[in-house]
Amino acid sequence: MFTKLRNRFLILNMSITSLVIVTAFAIIYFITYNNVTMDIQNHLNARSELQVVEGDDLPDHREDNGNAPSTSKKMVSNDMLSFTIEVDANGNILTVDSLLDLPDEVYKRAAETAWSHKESHSTITLDGRQWRYRVNPVNVNVIQKSGQQLTLDERRFTLVFLDVTTYRRTLLDLLTTLLFVGIVTLFVIFVVSLFFANRSIKPLAEAWSKQKQFVADASHELKTPLSIVNANYDVLLANQDETIKSQIKWLGYMRIGMDRLTKLIDDLLTLAKIEDVRLETQKQSFNISTAIQETIWSMEAAVNEKGIKLNCSIDPDIVVKSDAEKVKQVIAIMLDNAIKYTDDNGQIEISLLRSKRQITFSIKNSGKGIAKQDLPKVFDRFFRAESSRTHKSGSYGLGLSIAKTIMDRLGGEINVTSVENEWTTFTIQLKL
Hints:
Helix content: 40-55%
Strand content: 15-25%
Number of helices: 9
CATH architecture of the domain at 281-431: 2-Layer Sandwich
């Protein structure tokens, strides 16, 4: 399920990213292509400028054998290769203006191709290079003595050829670069997206796994007290003629089972309530020193029953701003846990210290301690390091999970350290 979710996330992310990259690169290529085309067109226009100026009346050459008049060409100086072919109305070559050392056959083939496709202005390949051409009619500008200027159509044409090999190679290199960069970028984005997708899915998978484990554990824990009730109920049914007084033992067992069931349900409801993100904490200033002392007094009987030596070091009159009831609940859970897992005639040390920005409350108890491999699981739901003592102590492994959840909601921290067969210390820290 989570693999499919991750794959869908990757597909969506890569689709959007690919669309953005392709669009951006297409725009870059389109703009560059247009600029190159405009540059080529401007060079062709410059190369096509031809001006013929006659001093007096109409030129005599129009009446003779048709030789070309003397002309003054305005050439554009740049480093681009080009040549010009002048042809008559039938496409026959009249003159070739070129500084290039090309065979006559090349010029002839260029003239024939350009003349047969006068309107296309396309690109042809000559002598291994690519050329863009343009066909322009030759107009003669005549300035008469009166100053009037006449433009005569000589029925001649100029075929201007411009070497665009470098331009085409530049566009091809740009396209190749964009494709390469795009592929590499998409690969990098895929790897990064896969990494973060796995990281994003991991908490969900863990939460789902914990949820399944929680349901299984809760079902198991609920089943135990119910089994006790059902077993004792069956005993009562088997002895219906007996008096209630004679069956009080079985009723007592049923009561124990119901009490345990009630406690378990209360703990589950507490967890559900404090994990509700919509539930706001009621923070207000209160004396945490007094709250701790009152909690200790409330559990004094349990401490004395086990002969536990209690050492307290509590800084007086420390005031914090937090949810008083929730903090008291955490303190009670920690103290109750310490009493349960302290051996008879053991020792519990409680301390409350104040620093500049926070308070530190710790409870250290002697006893079997917690194995190193179990420390990361201490705050998990239904986790119990000593399963053999579970039912004896009446613990379901929810108390510390509740304490951890409360501290997370209050913005505090709760931690545990332990040495096996020596001691265990739980510590909470709260901002002032």
